[in-house]
Amino acid sequence: MNSSTLGEFLLGRPGDFQYENAELGRLLNAIRLAGKVVSHEIRKAGLVDITGTVGSTNVQGEEQQKLDIFANDAFINTLTNREIVCGIVSEENEDIIEIHGADNRNRNKYVVVMDPLDGSSNIDANITVGTIFGIYHRISPIGTPVTMEDFLQSGNNQVAAGFIAYGTSTMMVYTTGNGVNGFTLNPAIGTYYLSHPNVTIPKDGGIFSVNEGGYVHFPQGVKNYIKYCQKEEGDRPYKGRYVGSMVADVWRTMLQGGIYFYPESTGKPHGKLRLLYECNPLAFLMEQAGGKATNGHMRIMDIKPTDIHQRMPFFGGDAKMVDKAMEFIRLAGE
Ligand code: AHM
Ligand code: MG
After folding, report:
1. Phi, psi at residue 259, to the nearest 5°?
2. Where in the chain is CATH 3.30.540.10?
């Protein structure tokens, strides 16, 4: 096994970053640190009764925090303190979080979009949850306040993206556009080790992953595709797997192949997943692992966002399987 740590790996790949290497390295360092803090807190869930709702008190009489708020604060504080980021969009905050910098001169170059704790409703059942992040170079001039346009960039402009999964182990998986690498945290010493170099989605994984509970509300093309996956023919029926934590479903897809999708439905005309901080970062990873990510019609990363919390249907995974799903959608005329 390669024993490279995440820190060594970042230092050893100076060509990885389109922009200032040292700064982006520092930014990824901030994210890996916040990930350790959140991981530590999540590992206590159930032990110290920390999964309660905001406002409740624990046995010591201290106010409890929901873990997604804890994670949000941990990432915002860590990113703010490092003086690299001029703004953050988080699933937990309605508005842009502006970071002016210690001297109040808006000198920082990057913006971060994040879902600090995706799938948090799964925590009580001891199921994997994750932090998803995307990093962009700001568009507005340095020295001016961050603007909405800095965040409404298409996923193509991401300079790095990834996730931290808090599962059976804690992992950080990221890309800077030069492939996907995964690092596993050794909790005893607090260090991430390279455990999954150059992740590539296997072809013909034969797994489909969707919340079939929504079947009756899906568009006809999606229904037809699900029937195709279930049909006894050739290498089908495919196996069905659905965790309900996007990070876990996407990571399994990247390791074992297949397709993960969250389509639109009658109740959710744009699906559920958020374009900026769920779809785009995971689409970047999918593509960098040799797969594909679309909204059923076009590449996720080509979409120009119109709203920071915009929702988007998502079909990601093995390119052949995503193409097949899109073919069914096209044939149904949707
Ligand atoms: P969240 O950001 O509120 O946690 O919602 C996103 C999650 C994804 O991780 C997951 O794929 C999806 O919601 C599951 O939704 P559903 O329960 O509708 O299948
Ligand atoms: Mg989410």
Report:
1. -135, 140
2. 6-196
Q: What is the pLDDT of residue 61?
A: 46
How many angstroms separate the alpha carbon of residue 182 from the centre of ligand 1? 23
Question: How does pLDDT run across 5-53, given as a tens digit for each residue?
Answer: 888 888 777 666 555 567 888 999 999 999 999 999 998 877 765 555 5
Q: Is 150 in the pocket of ligand 1 (CB under 6 A)?
A: no
Q: Ligand 1, residues 66, 253, 272, 276: which to mutate, most atoms within 8 A of Cβ?
A: 272
- Predicted pLDDT at 23: 84
Ligand nearest to the CA of 132: 2
Q: Is 65 in the pocket of ligand 1 (CB under 6 A)?
A: no
Q: How would DSSP label each residue in 24-59?
A: HHHHHHHHHHHHHHHHHHHTTTTTS---S-TT-B-T
Residue 224 near residue 332 (C-beta atoms within 8 A): yes
Pick 207-331's CATH classification: 3.30.70.240, 3.40.190.80, 3.40.309.10, 3.20.20.70. 3.40.190.80
To which CATH superfamily is domain 6-196 assigned?
A: Fructose-1,6-Bisphosphatase, subunit A, domain 1 (3.30.540.10)
Closest residue CA from atom 16 of ligand 1: 244
Question: Structure pTM?
Answer: 0.93
Please tell me what DSSP assigns to residue 162. Answer: E
